[in-house]
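Continuing the series of single-chain predictions for the mutant panel. This is the parent chain; the variants come on the following pages.
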Amino acid sequence: MPRKKTPPVTAADEMRFETAMERLEEIVERMESEALELDESLALFEEGVRLMRLTQGILDRSEARIHELLEDGDGFRLDPWDPE
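Parent structure:
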């Protein structure tokens, strides 16, 4: 049975990713620089977790698509990424 292809990341995904990353940066800056009430800190944290999950999902789909594209070609090898 042929393997199901991962849908490509769309321009809308890219825009959502960029927008979410910008908002995540705003949240981090605000939480680091301001003395916030507990309920406000929790609300910002919850929003940050939602945004992090959204961006991680887009990145996971992008990575899966890259793997598929490289598997389709001859002579390509994808080495695991090592940030160090």
